[in-house]
Write a structure and sequence with these properties.
This protein has 262 residues and is of the alpha+beta class. It has helices spanning 6-10, 92-97, 111-126, 130-148, 156-167, 175-182, 186-197, 201-219, 224-230, 236-247, 251-261, and strands at residues 3-4, 18-22, 35-37, 39-47, 50-54, 57-61, 65-69, 74-79, 84-91, 106-108. The chain has a five-stranded mixed sheet with strand order 1-3-8-5-6. The protein has a five-stranded antiparallel sheet with strand order 2-9-4-7-10.
Length: 262
């Protein structure tokens, strides 16, 4: 599956660290759907309706809903012609300066916050100084965080743990291997994971592996045995058991259901 850079989305030759745009005024990029990004994105829909699909989960597009995606997530959507809004795209290096890591796919903005947050966004759009724009972006994200915590990586430990999980997605390292690198212990890591993501450290590891398994099942020619091995599962039956527990489908049934749609 194609992985796109910000410059691909904007049809630009020059690379940028971040970009703020108006949804309805930005031409549709010549890209494949579904696809993956190598950057973080925030899309605030102020008008319109449709369906946004992030990592195989479907979410309704509606006014005053903000969607967020992390790098590597599979993304697709359909929306009505009158859809309007704003978007912010951020390179990984820029996002990591502020420990940005979105743990929930969307957030609905409270009515009393709409006017102020839209004013902040419009000022960001008008700001030509890139450094001031960066500060404004971090402020806008802090407003989201203040609302319903669109991302919960206040503790950089969890941010680093999730980054290590992605880097080692094709291995089956024990949790202790991660805690040694993070200079913590399994109990502390697991407790922080539960507070910030709702999963234990081990559950989070398995959840990320299953999401990667979904991608491999639908967008590669690898068979189920090879996918299990690629993700560090030595026992194919254990992989199938975990996959069914997490998705309610066997790997084969999942393939049939979603490949039939496409």
């Amino acid at each position: 599956m194609k992985i796109y850079k910000i410059s691909d989305i904007l049809d630009s030759i020059e690379p940028v660290q971040h970009y703020i745009g108006i949804f309805e005024e930005t031409p549709d990029a010549d890209i494949e759907w579904p696809h993956r990004h190598n950057f973080y994105s925030i899309v605030w829909f102020t008008q319109g309706k449709g369906l946004n699909v992030i990592d195989f989960e479907e979410y309704e597009i509606c006014p005053q809903r903000i969607f967020t995606t992390n790098p590597r997530q599979i993304h697709n959507w359909e929306y009505s012609a009158e859809t309007q809004g704003y978007f912010i795209l951020m390179e990984t290096s820029f996002a990591q300066q502020y420990n940005i890591d979105f743990s929930t796919p969307y957030q609905d903005i409270d009515k009393e916050e709409i006017s102020f947050m839209e004013t902040v966004l419009k000022k960001m759009l008008a700001e030509e100084d890139k450094q001031k724009q960066e500060i404004a972006i971090s402020y806008f994200i802090s407003l989201l965080k203040k609302g319903r915590t669109i991302y919960r990586s206040q503790d950089t430990l969890i941010f680093k743990y999730k980054k290590l999980l992605m880097e080692n997605i094709h291995t089956n390292l024990p949790i202790t291997a991660y805690t040694e690198r993070l200079k913590t212990n399994p109990e502390t890591l697991s407790e922080l994971c539960k507070v910030q993501t709702g999963f234990s450290a081990k559950q989070l590891q398995l959840d990320m592996k299953i999401t990667e398994a979904k991608r491999l099942l639908l967008y590669t020619s690898l068979n189920i045995n090879k996918i299990a091995f690629k993700l560090g599962f030595e026992d194919n039956s254990y992989f199938a058991k975990i996959f069914r527990r997490k998705t309610s489908f066997s790997p084969t049934a999942f393939q049939k259901k979603y490949l039939k749609r496409s």
